[in-house]
Automatic annotation (TrEMBL):
Its main location: membrane. Keywords: Ion transport, Membrane, Transmembrane, Transmembrane helix, Transport. May be involved in iron transport and iron homeostasis. It comes from the Eukaryota. It comes from Phaseolus angularis (Azuki bean). It holds the Pfam family FPN1. This is Solute carrier family 40 member. GO terms for cellular component: membrane. Belongs to the ferroportin (FP) (TC 2.A.100) family. SLC40A subfamily. One of its GO terms (molecular function) is iron ion transmembrane transporter activity. InterPro entries: Ferroportin-1, MFS_trans_sf. Coiled coil: none annotated. The chain crosses the membrane at residues 56-77, 89-113, 125-150, 183-208, 298-318, 330-354, 380-404, 410-430.
């Protein structure tokens, strides 16, 4: 047994150190990309409540725009990533994400410097607010494309023909990197806001994205060029997509040639027109992606996961803006969000241990199912739809924030959030019972054993 292991994993040579270094490049690039995103996610709520105090309206509108962008365009992004080459997706992702955050940061600086614009030049004020919302929506869509590419495809390709636990470890580590950014970026940004100024934090955000985009591009392209399997997977995916389109066109041509010659031309034209309409509707990226998603085994737990995003209690834009309205310093809010992230980091440490001892269903990590239980050809599409569904729930939460925009009524939003999380737990219990045919091992419980002995 030891000899076979040695044959499969020989001593490290120069050639084997290079993939390890490239994987580290992947982690560093992922860290840089997520850091900029987490800085913006934390800061935008504080910016909005300072731009228009005494109301959560602008913060809720921004959150609604951001969530609506993913909810509407998420499935399209998934199919777009599936259609283009990995290198092209990488270029568009990094440029659009970082450029959008730079423009949004500059707009925030302009609004903070010229705070009287809403009274003197309201049209310019609204134009800058609109620019912040549009750039935020574009930034979150490009971030989604990068997340799908890295977490749904690259990690799976790199871990192919490797021990099964490698994918679990890589998933846990990338998630841990994201949560570390979620922990540290708000804390550092909060200290900048509290002890320097809000304008300084916006300038820092813009400078970070201006500089980091070049480093990120070099790191990710080094990984892509250094691991041939990534390029091969991209070519296979594009070839599969083109083949599907060609087969659909050939099928349509063959069916048209089999139509009876004796039919009236008007009836033939009507039938062809109706058929083309139905085909075009079914081929709409949004509808086609949802149809693929609903056929997956992970659809119900995916819905349960999405319901967890229907909350205002996760230190998002609304909760951050409310705490700022309450007069809590920004660094304290950042520390609170950091503590929130620590729990998530602990989960990434505990998961590999739990997954090795109990089943994946019991552990309940949806992202692992989306890689293990979804076929490779559907993996990117399912990832896009899942992110879209989660953003739809976030959108509903922000719509509730628009309706209940008075910070004094925030407790009502908290009650609704609790109900949504309870529903998510109920749906997951249904899925767990369907898979395992039970929820608990009652016969192994202490009180059950005592009852059996007494009887």
């Amino acid at each position: 047994m030891e000899e076979s292991v040695k044959l499969r994993v020989p001593p490290l040579t120069g050639q084997q150190k290079q993939p390890l270094a490239l994987i580290n490049y992947l982690y560093i690039g992922h860290f840089l990309a997520r850091w900029g995103t987490r800085m913006w996610e934390f800061s935008v709520g504080l910016y909005m409540i300072n731009i228009w105090p005494e109301s959560l309206l602008y913060a809720a509108i921004y959150g609604a725009v951001e969530s609506a962008s993913i909810a509407v365009c998420g499935p399209i992004i998934g199919r777009w990533v599936d259609k283009l080459s990995s290198l092209k997706v990488l270029q568009l992702w990094l440029v659009t994400q970082n450029l959008s955050f730079v423009i949004a940061g500059a707009s925030v600086v302009a609004l903070l410097i010229h705070s009287s614009l809403k009274f003197t030049h309201f049209s310019i004020f609204m134009l800058l607010v609109l620019l912040i919302n549009v750039c935020g929506g574009i930034g979150v869509l490009s971030t989604l494309a990068g997340t799908i590419l890295i977490e749904r495809e690259w990690l799976s390709v790199i871990s192919e023909d490797q021990p099964p636990e490698l994918l679990t470890k890589m998933n846990s580590l990338t998630r841990r990197i994201d949560l570390c950014c979620k922990l540290l970026a708000p804390v550092i940004t909060g200290f900048i806001i509290s002890f320097v100024s809000l304008k300084a934090s916006a300038i820092t955000l813009a400078l970070w994205n201006t500089v980091s985009v070049w480093v990120e591009y070099w790191l990710f392209t080094s990984v892509y060029e250094g691991i041939p399997a990534l390029g091969q997977s991209s070519q296979k995916r594009m070839a599969r997509y083109l083949q599907c389109d060609q087969e659909m066109n050939n099928l349509t041509s063959e069916e048209d040639s089999l139509l009876p010659v004796t039919e009236c031309r008007s009836e033939l034209a009507d039938r062809k027109w109706n058929k083309k309409i139905s085909e075009k509707i079914s081929e709409i990226p949004y509808i086609a992606a949802w149809r693929v998603y609903l056929q997956q085994e992970v659809a119900l737990p995916g819905l349960a996961l999405a319901l967890l995003f229907f909350t205002v209690l996760s230190f998002g834009t609304l909760m951050t803006a409310t705490l700022e309205w309450e007069g809590i310093p920004a660094y304290v809010i950042g520390l609170g969000r950091g503590i929130n992230a620590v729990i998530g980091i602990a989960a990434t440490v505990v998961y590999p241990v739990l997954q090795s001892r109990i089943s994946t269903v019991r552990t309940g990590l949806w992202s692992i199912w989306s890689q293990d239980l979804v076929t490779e050809s559907d993996r990117l599409i399912v990832g896009g739809v899942q992110n879209s569904l989660q953003s739809l729930m976030e959108l509903l939460a922000y719509i509730m924030g628009i309706i209940i925009s008075d910070p004094r009524d925030f407790w009502k939003l908290a009650v609704i959030s609790f109900q949504a999380v309870t529903l998510a737990a109920f749906l997951y219990c249904i899925h767990s019972y369907h898979v395992r045919k039970h929820l608990f091992h009652f016969d192994r419980m202490l009180w059950a054993k005592c009852f059996q002995r007494a009887s």
